[in-house]
Amino acid sequence: MDVMFNKLLLLLIKYVPIIQMLAMLINNTLYYITSSYTAAYTIDFIFGNSLIFTILLLMISYRFNYCEWHRLIIIGNIINVTIASYDATFGIPFTDMQLLLTYYIIACIFILAAAYTHIKQVHHERKAKIAKTTYAEDD
Which has the closest alpha carbon to 106: 70, 81, 69, 71? Predict the structure, then answer.
């Protein structure tokens, strides 16, 4: 039972930041396009877009030695949550559309950086595996 729980925990930690980023973007889009905030509030309640939760995910990511691409997604989430919190508290002199575009641009930057990092890491691992196999054959 403990092994199954640990596997489930690690899977949740791995995919929650991606789901969180997607939910934030959907949530912010719903705030922009609808006058009824019921759906947006529900998504916000379910996915917990808070700064403390996102920082907790980052700390857990370091604790369980997750890849750099995973942390990049979490950092993108931290930036978006911080901007949203600052706007809600102090107000940012942007239109709603400019603010929404800012969230999307930040998400795109960090998704592209995470994809690049992941591809680079996989390429490096394959190159090392090929070199190891070639070295083993030469013996």
Answer: 81
